[in-house]
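User: Fold this; C-alpha cells only.

Assistant: Input:
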Amino acid sequence: MRDATKSVKEDIDEITGAITTPIYQTTAYLYPEGEKYRYSREANPTVLELAKKIAELENAEIGIAFSSGMGAISTTALSLLKPNNRVLVHRDMFGRSYRFFTDYLRSWGVNVDASFPGSNNIIEMAKSKKYDFVFVESITNPLLRVIDIFELSKVVKEQGGILAVDSTFSTPINQKPLELGADIVIHSASKFLAGHNDVIAGLAAGYSKHLNVVDQMRRTLGTSLDPHAAYLTLRGIKTLKIRMDVINRNAEQIAEFLEGHTKVAKVYYPGLKSHVDYEIAKKVLKGFGGVLSFEVRGNQENALKVMKSLKLIIPAQTLGGVNSVISHPATMSHRTLSLEERKVVGISDSLLRLSVGIEDVNDLIEDLDRALSTIY
C-alpha cells in the first residue's frame, strides 16, 4: 500500500465490526482472557493500533507510542545507553532535546559530543571516534539544516553504533529514515502526524532488537500514551498525506515570497536553491516540509512586532497543525539555550520560525506582507 492508503486504513474490530478503532478507556483487563494487555500503562488496544500505524508508515518492524515527543526521545536514549557510552548530537536542534543530552545524560555519566551545524560536520565527527548512539534531527529546528542520513548511517554502521533520527519536520510522507539506513525514527506526533494542535504524543519505530528494549523501559518509566490521545492521533494521521501535500506546496510558495521581500534579510527553507543544504535536501527528501524560518531586517523588537501584527497566522510555541503558527525561537522554543549557544547555532534575535498550515496560501502571504509593512 502507498502512504495515503496506509494512513487511512484501520483493522476492523472482529467482535463489533467497528470501522474505526475504539477508545479503550480502561485501566485493566479480565484475566486470563486479557493477558495480552493486563494493564493499560503497559499495553492498550487503541495505543497499540497507533504503534502499528507508525510502523506501517515508516516500513519498520515495530512501533511504540509515548506520552510526548520528549518522552519518546528520553525513553529511547535511557533504554539503549549506559554510563561511559559515547553519544553524538548536533548543536542545532530543539532546545529541550539538546538540554536532555548535554545536561542530563552527561550528569548520568554518558559522554556527549555536539557537532557544529551542518551535515558534513556531524559526519566528519562521527568518523573521528566510535559513538554508541548518534541522534540527529533529519531537518533541524529552527534553521532547517538537512542531514544526509544515507551517508551518516554508513559511518555509524561501520562504527557499530545506533543511529536515531527525529523526523518530526519531515514526516513519513517526505522521508523514511529507516530506508536511508537509520535504526530508529522518532516523531513528536503532536505536530504534523496528529496535525490539529489538540494532542500531545510521541512515536518511535524501527528494528525490534532495539525497540523491544525501549518498550520495556516505557512500561517502567511510565511514558505511556493515553488511549484518547492515541485515538486523536490515529484520526489525524488519516489526513496526513493530503495535508502534507498542501503544506509542502504552501511552504514553498511562502518561502519564495519572503526571499524576495525587502523587509526580510534571510530565509531558511531547504526547498530554496539559496539554502546551504539544497542539494542534500533534493537527495534525501521527497518534499521540503512545512516549516521555514526567516530573519526580519532589524532587531528583536522588529521581529516581535511582525509576529504580533499578524492577523491570521497564530503566535504560539508549536508547529505542524492545520493552522499556520509563528514563533520567536530565541524567547520560545530555544529559550533554554544561552546567548552563546544560540550564536553558535545561528539563532539570531530577529529570527522567526513559521509553521505553514493548510489555509489559502494567498491569505497567508497577504497576512505576512501586512505584518512586515509595520517595520521600517
